[in-house]
């Protein structure tokens, strides 16, 4: 039995429900047929294909086509790791670039001793202190970021800063140094060359005996090596000692490292670069030649 007015009442009720729930009633097509079934959009829920909220602030993620409603969005991928800056110089390196680094560290009062051109323990500690003061990783190695920060705070060092006091570039090798294995020591330039068959393998700054205890000149040979030697006359440490003439030896000097050319030895050839002389001590053999000249 049909009740007059019933369809109109039902239609009105459906419209009210649609307005209340946010439903979308598909309109009739051109052929008079109704479209797809009614799509219900609950209040506060995104529609089909709408952008879904992202757990990352400021990032919007869109659900891919065909993803069922309510499917959680995929978590954001982890950010790629930032590579560490390249290391330019580290302990054991030598050369003019290391000398400039040391001169710049002296300008900002992180290194007390003069440039040696060898990346030694004091240089590593100075770099580590500089890095820590500026919030950089305290590695002790000079990477590109550390170097750029240091360059921004300093000026290009002059020759007097690169070769302070009496330290100078190595003089030409004495002709007696051009054959065999030789510790070629020049009083003119205050340098020591370690040479093998005329080729210089390493160079380091040295100082000599004081006025009343001069270092002897001439051609000698290494007759004894003592890694942890202590002087029996002066009771002072002589690490990495390589004796060549009586009690005179090439050895590391803590005083030379601390005071530079302000002091002098009792006749020995002092080296202030501990890393360099440790390497030299390992290479020199008993019987190797020593040439000390002006």
TrEMBL record:
Compositionally biased region (Pro residues): 73-86
Taxonomy, superkingdom: Bacteria
Pfam family, one: YkuD
Biased composition (Low complexity): 57-72
Matching InterPro entries: LD-transpeptidase (IPR050979), LD_TPept_cat_dom (IPR005490), Peptidoglycan-bd-like (IPR002477), PGBD-like_sf (IPR036365), PGBDSf (IPR036366), Transpep_catalytic_dom (IPR038063)
Signal peptide, first to last residue: 1-30
Keyword vocabulary terms for this entry: Cell shape, Cell wall biogenesis/degradation, Peptidoglycan synthesis, Signal, Transferase
Pathway named in the protein's UniProt entry: Cell wall biogenesis; peptidoglycan biosynthesis
Residues forming the catalytic site: 251, 268
CDD domains membership: YkuD_like
Annotated ranges, domain L,D-TPase catalytic: 181-293
Keyword Signal in record: yes
Region (Disordered): 36-91
Name of the protein in question: L,D-transpeptidase family protein
